Amino acid sequence: MKKIIFLITVSLLSIKGFAQQTFSLTPKEKDAILYMREEEKLARDVYDSMYIKWGVNPFGNIRQSEQIHMDKMKALITTYKLQDPVYKNNDKHGLFTNALLKNYYNKLVAAGSQALPEALRAGAKVEEMDIADLQERIKQTQKPDILATYNYLAMASGNHLRAFVRRLKMLGINYEPVILSKTAFSKIISARDTRGGYGRWN
């Protein structure tokens, strides 16, 4: 009987230890999840504004994709029992708890409202920023679920970046990277779209 109780106790402690290990985050992992949740909101809100202003794709389609990205980040927030920064503002358009992202949003919308080419450039810049931030945060974790989410978002952002660059090219404009290195940018642009990232958004 004592042996059975001992085995049950050991099993319960093992489960508890596994749960603590699974659901514990480093400060960097926590900050990254919260930041990327709002950064995906930034993308969605900017594209919403640009679609209302110009009424063209790829803004109309990609903004729907960004909502899915927000939902994926929300799933991580739920899994790790974090306080959702988007919920604090009731997901109101253009509002962010992160002051840096709020400033980015204002500048991107202001620039994109001047002319369609500027709007497309703003979209490409958002995707560059998203890819660069995801690449940095991928280095900060080893948790499979977080890595899977970040890699999925990075793949989709590559598709979106190519879509904006293609649309600019249709207008006779060759887009030059402003955040990514030219080598990294060229590698992304020369790659094929991936269906998991929602394909082509011309």
Architecture overview:
- By secondary structure, this protein is mostly helical.
- The chain has one domain: Ferritin (Up-down Bundle), CATH 1.20.1260.10.
- About 75% of the residues lie in helices and about 0% in strands.
- It has helices at about 1-25, 25-55, 60-80, 85-90, 100-110, 115-140, 145-170, 180-190.
- Helix 2 runs parallel beside helix 5 (about 100-110), helix 5 runs antiparallel to helix 6 (about 115-140) and helix 6 runs antiparallel to helix 7.
- It is globular, with a radius of gyration of 20 Å.
- The relative contact order is 0.13.
- Mean pLDDT is about 90; it is low at about 1-20 and about 195-200.
Topology:
Elements: H1 2-23, H2 27-54, H3 59-79, H4 85-88, H5 99-112, H6 116-138, H7 144-170, H8 182-190
Helix pairs in contact: 2-3, 2-5, 2-6, 3-7, 5-6, 6-7
CATH topology: Ferritin
Distance between the termini: 69 Å
What oligomerization state is this entry in? single chain
Reading off the top of the CATH hierarchy, the class is best stated as Mainly Alpha
Instruction: Report the helical percentage.
Output: over 70%
State the CATH architecture.
Up-down Bundle
Determine the structural class based on helices, strands and strand pairing. Answer: mainly alpha
| Total domains | 1
- What's the total count of β strands? 0
Overall body shape:
globular
What profile does the largest beta sheet have? none
Strand content: under 5%
Element order, helices and strands?
A: HHHHHHHH
Uncertain stretches: 2-22, 196-202
Number of helices: 8
What is the arithmetic mean of pLDDT? 89
CA radius of gyration:
20 Å
| Fourth-tier CATH superfamily name | Ferritin, core subunit, four-helix bundle
